[in-house]
Amino acid sequence: MGDGGSTSASVAGFHVVLLSGALGGHICKPSISAAALEEAGACLKEVKMKTTICTFPMRALALHYLRMCVAEGCYEEISMMARSIRREVAVHMAAALSAVKRHHLALVLHWVAAIGHVCGPACDAIKFYLKDSILENIRDVPIVLPLLPSLTPAIQNAVKEALLDALFYNDSEGVLLKELVDALIDHTSKDVAERQREVDALRLKIDTLTVADQDRRGTERQPAEMDGEEEGQGEADQGIKA
Length: 242
Description:
Residues 213-242 are annotated as: Disordered. By secondary structure, the protein is mainly α. The chain has helices at 34-40, 57-72, 75-84, 87-97, 104-115, 120-128, 130-136, 141-144, 153-169, 175-241; strands spanning 14-17, 24-28. It starts with 13 loop residues before the first strand and ends with a helix.
């Protein structure tokens, strides 16, 4: 709103944003103009407004979960969430998520890769923010490269063009390229370490199963050996009696 004592000010519009993004999820335009106030002989400070706030606890919880997944880099969980809700809702959210500020690139591309073909306004919104997103989230590029084959061709091409544009036209000193190379090396190292942990865990599981199987066989063999010894002892006793 304008200054309280102004008679020419009007009630400003407002919009609701998602995850601190720049794209409004809902817009309400002014319903009272400055001219209407002046005609009524009222100034802005005399206007009383009644506001109704609707809360949706489960939706708020879902968005909080999404926010925590973004903060902690749990992108597989983000993909699962996108696949688990109705497609039309997921597509609408893709457009709203296209302007979030934190880890935009990884969040949006994991989301749209999970829901499949995206076109129309949602696709346009995603492409519009791609260049700035890559410039601001260059270290997330290695995370999203494996997703490219799963993306809509239009978004896939837009990602490639935005990446090339960022590296060749906005990186005259090679700062972005160096950061991208460092991110690729870091991502590869983490991937190799993760694979090694999986191999070590598998080996440990195999060793544990092997030891358990050996113990089981040894336990089964002991009663059989004892039965054999008892039979031998019984035959010896019978021989002595004879």
